[in-house]
Amino acid sequence: MSVTSVTNTVDTTGTKSSASSSATTELLNTDAFMNLLVTQLKYQDPLDPMETNEFMSQLAQLTQVERLQNIYDSITDLETTIETGNLLDMIGKKISVDGNTLSQGDEIVVKPASGYDSVVLTIKNASTGTQETVTRNKGESLVYTNEGADAVTVTAYALKDGSKVNCSTTAYRTITGVRSTGSGVVLVAGNGDEYTASSVTMIKN
User: Fold this and answer.
1) How confident is the model over 29-47, as pLDDT tens digits?
2) Which of 30, 40, 160, 192 gives the lowest tally of CB atoms within 10 Å of its CB?
3) Among candidate residues 1, 181, 183, 172, the one with its CA nearest the CA of residue 90
4) Which CATH number fits domain 100-171: 2.60.40, 1.25.40, 2.10.25, 3.30.70?
């Protein structure tokens, strides 16, 4: 079992440069520039109208704004392409998620205290409500994989000399796709849930 802790490994959603972000905020788009120019012409002093050179200068600025916007759009498209390519490597891997509900192929890893004799898992079918109990003795696998088509919820506790001891669990969801959204690229799990790259903290092969 290979589990990797993630800091910035797949944090590509937030990797867009501060320069690009600043450009988005500060860049005056074409429509806004035209509105300002038309307003200026509309309310200019008839006795002191804008000179031709000044008007041509403002039109030149408009052209520059359009070019800057096109450059920014191209950079944004390139960043999205790179981000998508990086996240495609995540398909087929599992990421840690909150909760204890598993879809088909998802896993839950049980982490009992070091001194334990066995771990007891209670698996409840989310569709039918039926339950089953699975016992794993010390030395046996502490990973449970949902092989069925229905989603299940899994709870666990550990035993030592017949008494319960501390026990925690971590659920891992299988990534089956990548999708581009208006706010960036997201990872798509088998159950349809979506996760931003920045939300990923643990990856399991």
Assistant:
1) 667 766 776 776 666 666 5
2) 192
3) 172
4) 2.60.40
